[in-house]
Amino acid sequence: MLIHETMQCFYEMAQFKEVSQKSKLHPKPEGLTLQYGTAGFRTHAKHLDHIMFRMGLLATLRSKKTKSTIGVMVTASHNPEEDNGVKLIDPMGEMVTALWEGYATQLANAEQDSLLKELKDIIEKEDINMSEPASVYVGKDTRPSSASLSQAVLDGVSSLGGKTHDYGLVTTPQLHYMVCCCNTHGCYGSPTIEGYYQKLSQAFLQLTQNALNRTDDQKRLLVDGANGIGALKMREMEPFLRSEMQVVLSNDGSSGKLNHMCGADYVKVQQNAPQGMNMGVGERCCSFDGDADRIVYYYTDSKGCFHLLDGDKIATLISTYLKELLTQAGLNLQIAVVQTAYANGSSTRYLEDVMKVTVCCTKTGVKHLHHAAQEYDIGVYFEANGHGTVLFSKAAQKQIQDLVKDPNSNDERKRAVKLLESTINLINQTVGDAISDMLVIEAVLAIRGMSAQDWDAIYTDLPNRQLKVTVSDRRVIDTTDAERRAVSPEGLQDTIDSLVKKYKSARSFVRPSGTEDVVRVYAEADTQESADSLAHEVSLAVYRLAGGIGDEPKPLH
């Protein structure tokens, strides 16, 4: 024991000396504090050098603690080009745990002279053996600041004696995939970009063999790459898809600015096509976001009206396809769709009443959705913004694999179970992945012989409206029932309930923002006018009962 402790002490002293020297090259601006949120750290790139170095340190500690490879992704996703950020990836490709998010915030905000003290504090709390080897995978997006910031991460890892694999330019989901492949020792796939393209394209080609007589028009898809990393990787993947998909790529990064008037977030918020895309009537189009972990689809009809197919529509398409296959394969597995309060009421009703699919509602934020989806044999989750994936439990995957090998199953069962197997291989189960989700959607539409219009017609969204009310302290609002009901301030929920009763097919809820002193208001009803009117009335109630500041909310019309 004594020898072990002496060695540990020796390792720490040597490593801390190097951390102390190297951290001077990545100094923290005094007084700057940042919080590790759902999306990691995100702010203007010029404030992030010290954060990146310190996340390199933290990832090394996490690797020693878990005896696994950890990922660090340098990206700010759908934020403007001048911002940047960083996310940590845990061993199975999932987001880092809440406890370690706390350590990230603690380490990021330590003033320069107390950095070593904070580091030692984490090592002691977690009882980390510093003589353990460490392995960290690092990736970055295409932002101008990403090169120097990812170098700061590499510096952090090496100063604690960790080994790195620098993947360079990758999408966020690709790095999640690599980490999972490495820690499952190749069971999930090969931890290379080529391995990723091969696994996905092979599954896609197997699925599309089941689509009869597809025309070139049906294989054609317009893709908005948000002038980001997704465009770059789509170009690399195209040869792997052979002639089964004809991608017309716009906003490919050759001239436009990242996320500027393009990308999934822009399309979703503006309810409009991105700049730089020439859409024909009824043509299928989709947009990735800046780091390619979100996707939305859309088309324009013969009257020139824009139709958005968001995360709710994607979850509905995929879950109904999977449910049909389970029935055909004679598999008794429970499939559930996980939604948040923002999911359109029409989608919930269609899933529960028509498709008889279990729907579970959870708090907003990908972490909550992912966690809830793990409770089922098959859990489908998509946020309305287009971030989502499908999770298959180990037991479900085993049942499907056993049935594939079963010599006694009839042709219908065989076909269904082979389709299920290929679908599992096509889905990136670690995290929402725009490229993987796009291929799943394209395969499902092809197998079912559906156009974007057919898909859109599955159900009609209820008109809705989202508003924000500025308040002096957002913590005044407290919610329950997956954020669908307010428990404080007193009287607010009763007021909302009585306002909702005035409208048809109506529903409304309020929740505090996770990042700023505003309260978000959501309302839906049978007409746009009613939804707008209800949203305004609820905003007024929030303003009056929850300490609104500035001018009283004005009616929308």
From TrEMBL:
Sequence ranges assigned to domain Alpha-D-phosphohexomutase C-terminal in this UniProt record: 486-539
Gene Ontology molecular function: magnesium ion binding; phosphoacetylglucosamine mutase activity
Annotated catalytic residues: 77
Cofactor: how bound: Binds 1 Mg(2+) ion per subunit.
A UniProt-annotated Pfam family: PGM_PMM_IV
Domain Phosphoacetylglucosamine mutase AMG1, chain residue ranges per copy: 195-296, 310-448
Alpha-D-phosphohexomutase alpha/beta/alpha domain sequence ranges: 64-95, 132-179
Biological process terms in GO annotation: carbohydrate metabolic process; hemopoiesis; UDP-N-acetylglucosamine biosynthetic process
Keyword annotations of the record: Acetylation, Carbohydrate metabolism, Isomerase, Magnesium, Metal-binding, Phosphoprotein
Associated pathway: Nucleotide-sugar biosynthesis; UDP-N-acetyl-alpha-D-glucosamine biosynthesis; N-acetyl-alpha-D-glucosamine 1-phosphate from alpha-D-glucosamine 6-phosphate (route I): step 2/2
Entry annotated with the keyword Ribonucleoprotein: no
Cofactor(s) annotated in UniProt: Mg(2+)
Catalyzed reaction equations: N-acetyl-alpha-D-glucosamine 1-phosphate = N-acetyl-D-glucosamine 6-phosphate
Residues bound to Mg(2+): 77, 289, 291, 293
Keyword Disulfide bond: no
InterPro entries with a match to the protein in the record: A-D-PHexomutase_a/b/a-I, A-D-PHexomutase_a/b/a-I/II/III, A-D-PHexomutase_C, A-D-PHexomutase_C_sf, A-D-PHexomutase_CS, AMG1_II, AMG1_III, PAGM
Binding site residues for substrate: 383-385, 511-515, 520
Function (record text): Catalyzes the conversion of GlcNAc-6-P into GlcNAc-1-P during the synthesis of uridine diphosphate/UDP-GlcNAc, a sugar nucleotide critical to multiple glycosylation pathways including protein N- and O-glycosylation.
Family of the protein in this entry: Belongs to the phosphohexose mutase family.
Protein name, per record: Phosphoacetylglucosamine mutase
